[in-house]
UniProtKB/TrEMBL annotation:
Protein name: ABC transporter ATP-binding protein
PROSITE patterns in the cross-refs: ABC_TRANSPORTER_1, ABC_TRANSPORTER_2
Protein source organism: Lysinibacillus boronitolerans JCM 21713 = 10a = NBRC 103108
Positions of transmembrane segments: none
Residues of the ABC transporter domain: 4-229
Pfam families given in the database record: ABC_tran
């Protein structure tokens, strides 16, 4: 049985389709990424999972429970991090964390304390005086403090600095080892690549692809900026059969899809003074799907 199941979910706001025919099945223990640009429909899908929205068509289930009908029960056991957290500003971080814990009937804060320590959160401050990143950490502590088996995170790293983003990835990988089922939305391919088993890509309310990270990586091309020691070295390199764009007399941009090994081997024969990896943007990856007719794989 899937832990999370979204069946042909459609939501219309007036005449506008926020999401259309979204279909997802996430088995126990899977870390699933939900990628898409701003306004693609990620939060709308997630809000249905938490039972906050009534579908126009379709349905969703968590652990076999209908998300709309069993909303209260689901909110009790699922770990949830909303995209925009509505905090009670007058509380300190700690008071808020205890408040949420009590709503869940918890009275042991040991794990919450551990999480605060891990995320380096000083929760004694008033929430209204906290930065966006600190508030995000409060949200993460609330999402994980009751050892949930299923976790739903709406853009979990938004507002976190790069060091914390790395810590977050480490944290998710540890949760994955424990067997936690995680569904997380993001618009950053890198964090999804590092943590998830599978990913669905949503654009303009429709799923354009669902695939394993292994397959995504195989298909993904990467660009490298190479700077050669001098023009002669670059000229020599032009004989190699690579798709490249000449940037200057000593610099080229190369696109590599798939096998890196052969590329690295070739590079070892040249005098290179600098190499930069240019990450492929989400849009570039979408282009790939559009070029293939946006077919679902
Ligand atoms: N309550 C609402 N009323 C009208 N339109 C809405 C409502 N909620 C969402 N939408 C629209 O539905 C579309 C999808 O929004 P959603 O918030 O799900 O996107 P998202 O993928 O989470 O984007 P982001 O990355 O910016 O958070 C957007 O065009 C948004 O304006």
């Amino acid at each position: 049985m899937s832990m999370i199941e979204v069946n042909h979910l459609t939501k219309k706001f007036g005449d506008f389709y926020s999401i259309q025919n979204v279909h997802l099945q996430i088995p126990k223990g899977e870390v699933f990424g939900f990628l898409g640009p701003n306004g693609a429909g990620k939060s709308t899908t997630i809000r249905h999972l938490m039972g906050f929205l009534q579908p126009t068509e379709g349905s969703c289930f968590i652990n076999g429970l209908n998300c709309r009908e069993a909303s209260a029960t689901i909110q009790q056991f699922v770990g949830y991090l909303p995209g925009e957290i509505a905090f009670i500003d007058k509380m300190t971080g700690k008071q808020f964390i205890h408040f949420i814990a009590q709503l869940r009937g918890m009275n042991d804060y040991t794990h919450a304390e551990k999480l605060m320590h891990f995320f380096e959160l000083d929760a004694s401050r008033l929430i209204k005086k906290m930065s966006k990143g600190m508030k995000q950490k409060v949200g993460l502590v609330c999402a994980f403090m009751h050892h949930p088996e299923i976790v739903i995170l709406d853009e979990p790293t938004s507002g976190l600095d790069p060091l914390m983003q790395t810590k977050f990835i480490e944290f998710i990988l540890a949760e994955k080892d424990k067997g936690t089922t995680i569904f997380m939305s993001s618009h950053m391919i890198e964090e999804v690549e590092k943590t998830c088993d599978r990913v669905a890509i949503i654009n303009a309310g429709k799923i354009v692809a669902t695939e394993t990270i292994t397959d995504l990586k195989k298909r993904k091309s990467k660009k490298y900026m190479l700077e050669f020691q001098d023009e002669q070295e670059l000229t020599r390199f032009l004989d190699e059969e690579y798709v490249l764009e000449r940037i200057s007399s000593t610099k080229v941009m190369i696109t590599i899809t798939g096998d890196l090994q052969a590329f690295l081997h070739t590079l070892s024969n040249y005098k290179i003074i600098d190499l930069d990896v240019i990450s492929q943007s989400l849009e570039d990856i979408f282009m790939h799907y559009y070029e293939n007719g946006g077919a679902q794989s």
